[in-house]
Amino acid sequence: MKGSLPIPRPKSWPPRTIDNELGIATLSLGNWREHKLGPRLEAAAEAGYHWIDLFDECWAAYLEEHGLDGKKLWEATPENLQVAHKLGELVKSLGMRISCTQPLRKIEGIKDPVERRATLDLVAKRFPFMRAFDTDLVFMCASIRSDSGVTSDLKMVAQDLAEMGDMAAAFSHADGGRMLRIGYEGLSWATRNTWSASWEAVRAANRPNVGLVVDAFNVLAVEWADPPNPAGHGRVYGAIEESVTLLCLSLASLVASVPGDRIFFFQVGDAELVDPRRLYREPLDPETPALLPWSRGHRLFPFETSRGGYMPVELVAAAVLATGYQGPMSLEVFNNSLNVAGKNVPPEHAARGMVGLRKVLEAVQRVPPFWDPSVEVSIEDLVLLYYSNRQVKPNI
């Protein structure tokens, strides 16, 4: 990439220390309908998190708590901005920072120039609020639109990302603040559903303030998992050795091709091995992506094996850290348990999440550098490590 720095790499593997600070998404502490944002933030601080990933729905609900219109969450009125400053200061007073706001949805690839302009202008409406929150990152999910009004053409998507980066840069230069950044994430049910397809668009955009968001769940949902399969994995092949091989080949490519400073955010999450007869007991609406019920109701914090967690999150985390990524490791988990009322929901989920993140940090240290061609790593060893990390008997 033009003007990019050399790819930063750890001097040795495993790393002597992992200095990435830990974060959690507001929706992973409780649903906004049942749980006010303040108690959720307090629970996160008590559990030891450093970073908060602010979801739009939670920000809208916080505005409504202050008597303002949550449907106008990005209207830069003095009243709205005052509440945004208040929220930013609240988070800081608890010893944390807001890492990002999200999600931007259905943004790129719009064909109609009038609709496209209006949509990109909606992105720019967030910029004053990012200053008020004291965060520099907003990220968008790859579009799930498939109608005739959009295109997935790489050049058009890259052009849209580049223009958003330019808009963020112009705002930053105008107000003299630190550079605002745009992150781009591939959703497992979107048009661009892999890290590589998302990276291709980011690289083609060629803007220093446009980068990649890597979500372990979305990587594994495409390159490991197969919810309709009772084994849970094997989207291409049934044997676990083959599943591990395909995943590691992809992750080795990530380490080889993506500089760590081009990854703007890393999200961590596992998911439940669900009986497909329970997950798909009713026919899906034609407009509902097949992975959506699993994603929205059955994600878990890492290594929650007793709750059905089974995905090799540690392999994704190891690969991301091997790129030299130095940003937060943040939890993004959706689960039906977060929709339950009760004051214990935020602290319980905050504590569970912190346990999971610490287990990831420990497990990463045991992952051999499978991405390094100079080191011989056998698939059999990786499979045994997978089972060992989950303290279950190998099924091989």
Tally of discrete structural domains: 1
Radius of gyration: 20 Å
Derived from helix and strand composition plus strand pairing, the structural class reads: alpha/beta
What's the number of extended β-strand segments?
10
Order of helices and strands: EHEHHEHHEHEHEHHEEHHEHEHH
Mean pLDDT: 90
Domain Xylose isomerase-like TIM barrel: 41-349
Protein name: Xylose isomerase-like TIM barrel domain-containing protein
Organism: Cladophialophora immunda
InterPro entries: IolE/XylAMocC-like, Xyl_isomerase-like_sf, Xyl_isomerase-like_TIM-brl
Describe this structure in words.
With 396 residues, the protein is α/β, with parallel strands linked by helices. Strand 4, helix 6 and strand 5 form a beta-alpha-beta unit. Helix 1 (37-47) packs parallel to helix 13 and helix 12 packs across helix 13. The longest helix is centred in the middle third of the chain and has 22 residues, at 154-175. The strands form 2 sheets. It has an 8-stranded parallel beta barrel with strand order 1-2-3-4-5-6-7-10, surrounded by 7 helices. It has a two-stranded antiparallel ribbon with strand order 8-9. It has 14 helices and 10 strands. The protein has one domain (22-390): Divalent-metal-dependent TIM barrel enzymes (TIM Barrel, Alpha-Beta Barrel), CATH 3.20.20.150.
